[in-house]
Amino acid sequence: MAVSDKDILYEDNHLIAVMKRAGDIVQIDETGDEPLDEQVKKYLAAKYNKPNSAFLGVVHRLDRPVSGVILFAKTSKALERMNAVFKNREVKKTYWAVVRQKPAKPSGTLVHWLVKNPQKNVVTPYNTEVAGSQRSELSYRLIGELGGYYLIEVDPLTGRSHQIRVQLSTLGCPIVGDNKYGYPRGSRKGSICLHARRLQFIHPVKKEPVNIFARLPVDGFWERFEDF
């Protein structure tokens, strides 16, 4: 499915943010499916009549089954500066996750050391540092309940692979649909109920606050939580 105007959450001369659908890949992988960065390049080339394609830099990534806001750079200067913003943790990322198990504490901070097995694409959490591990920290709070499902807002302080998925699972709260990390069954749509809700940062060129907000997917389930 091609990117269109309705998918654009933010755009200026330097950056473009897109609503990623669950199931999209951000960059090319072994599946050979068309990645989101290529779709956005085509969108920009058509919009601005650039027959030789448009520059697009990947600033960060979201797992394939995750939906929400994803940011790209439209110039090499913006890419370099946004890479520094993310590396220096000068961006606030907010996610929403839906779980079936109510967390024992309504809010808290989780710290683990994560080890990724790239062959199996699975991350294992440890409570103390081990060889090859990366420190991973997030804060969470319970913000709502609807029909036996619980909505959790998550602010990751680090940006590790599968971080939110595996850390919520350690709480006994695997994300709905995420059978890789403890939910009893997967989604037929290949999605999990984890949504990148918001990105906030100081624009690397304009030096102004940027607040990019992603609506919830309309899939017969997610949109019921829009009022929380």
TrEMBL record:
Gene3D superfamilies: Pseudouridine synthase. PROSITE patterns: PSI_RLU. Pfam families: PseudoU_synth_2 (PF00849). Keywords: Isomerase. InterPro entries: PsdUridine_synth_cat_dom_sf (IPR020103), PsdUridine_synth_RluA-like_CS (IPR006224), PsdUridine_synth_RsuA/RluA (IPR006145), RluA_PseudoU_synthase (IPR050188). Signal peptide: none annotated. One of its GO terms (molecular function) is RNA binding. GO terms for biological process: pseudouridine synthesis; RNA processing. Coiled coil: none annotated. Residues 14-169 form the Pseudouridine synthase RsuA/RluA-like domain. Belongs to the pseudouridine synthase RluA family. This is RluA family pseudouridine synthase. The lineage of its organism: Bacteria, Pseudomonadati, Bacteroidota, Sphingobacteriia, Sphingobacteriales.
